[in-house]
Amino acid sequence: xxxxxxxxxxxxxxxxxxxxxxxxxxxxxxxxxxxxxxxxxxxxxxxxxxxxxxxxxxxxxxxxxxxxxxxxxxxxxxxxxxxxxxxxxxxxxxxxxxxxxxxxxxxxxxxxxxxxxxxxxxxxxxxxxxxxxxxxxx
Length: 138
Fold this sequence. Notes:
- The longest helix is centred in the middle third of the chain and has 13 residues, at 53-65.
- This protein has four helices and seven strands.
- Helix 2 crosses helix 3 (53-65).
- It is α+β, with helices and mostly antiparallel strands.
């Protein structure tokens, strides 16, 4: 897996809340691992929520843009989504086997990124770092 985005710029939406987005947000809050749009759509359908797959994709993209969910891109190019416990910048440690995810801070990484940017004359630098391994359950 590689990352697409985990930066929580300005959280909160100026978009009009919809029934579909509320149902998706509720499901995301109850799902601790990263999950695909298709899986979320199936779960919504199985619990009786009438939401189209295109609506799920559209809402996930909006929620990611608003900083409400993080997005990872898997090795095969699929985006997976997860609600995060913090609005602060963070990284993820993800189990390759079960998807268990731990949010981690990386002060040494933050310091390194700022120093590399400064040394090379860059400003307003962002980054994403995800760590993948196998948790102790496997």
